Amino acid sequence: MDKSFNYVISPEISEFRKFSPKLKIGVLASGRGTNFQELINLSEKGELDIDIKVLITNKDDAGCIKRAESVEIPHKIIRGKDFPKKEIFELKIINTLINYDVELVVMAGWMKIVSPFFIKKFKNKIINIHPSLLPAYKGGSAIKESLVNGSKITGCSVHFVEEEVDSGALIMQAALSIRDDDDIESLSKRIQILEHKILPHSISHAGFLIRGNFMENY
User: One of 130, 159, 196, 205 is an active-site residue; which one?
Assistant: First the structure.
């Protein structure tokens, strides 16, 4: 895969914050878990001061499960279809995060819209990564829509989660040009490279805000 492409990241942050004790995070993921793997790698290298307390997925065959098992990170499969109501499904997730003493909830490819009930339980303590330059192209078809609409620039965003889908205060964004010959697969791969760059720094910054009780003014 060609990694030589031009991009812009804002704000430009070169160093991770230091946390003692390490920032306790819970990761919600539904897919292959490449962002999750990046967090594992940075944690194991001692570059990012995080303690990944638990992985929660809603898919039995999600690739992120094997990634968690390979480094003995606890994981829980919590499927919406196993619960009669969304509220009960979310309550199971909430209780799991609380039981693992999670400080920051990281949605890294979590393909479920969370309710106001969930958000209020972790007010200003949930972040999400999205494959567009928000507020453009919200929702689950962001990359496809950017191509269909003939956009020249797209990218990815990390933001705090609020009740409106793909809203909330932006933490960091990365932008890149859309090539004339791009399709969903090629553009997704380049966006994913940028996600791996901005998500760890966004976690670091979010942790700084949470530990410092700065979120009320953010």
Answer: 130
Is the backbone peptide bond immediately before 11 cis, with ω within 30 degrees of 0? yes
Instruction: Confirm whether 157 is domain-assigned.
Output: yes
Cβ(52)–Cβ(75) below 8 Å: no
Residue 115 lies in a domain: yes
User: Which CATH number is 73's domain given?
Assistant: 3.40.50.170
The answer to whether the pTM exceeds 0.85 is yes
Number of domains in the chain: 1
Range of the domain at 182: 19-212
The pLDDT of residue 213 is 72
CA distance 134 to 130: 8
201 is catalytic: no
Tell whether 166 is covered by a domain: yes
Q: Is residue 9 part of a domain?
A: no
- Cα–Cα–Cα angle for 171, 137, 153, rounded to 5 degrees: 80
Half-sphere CA count of 76, side-chain side, radius 13 A: 18
Write the pLDDT tens digit of every residue in 37-84.
999 999 999 999 999 999 999 999 999 999 999 999 999 999 999 999
Which of 203, 205, 191, 209 lies closest to 7, judged by CA?
Answer: 191
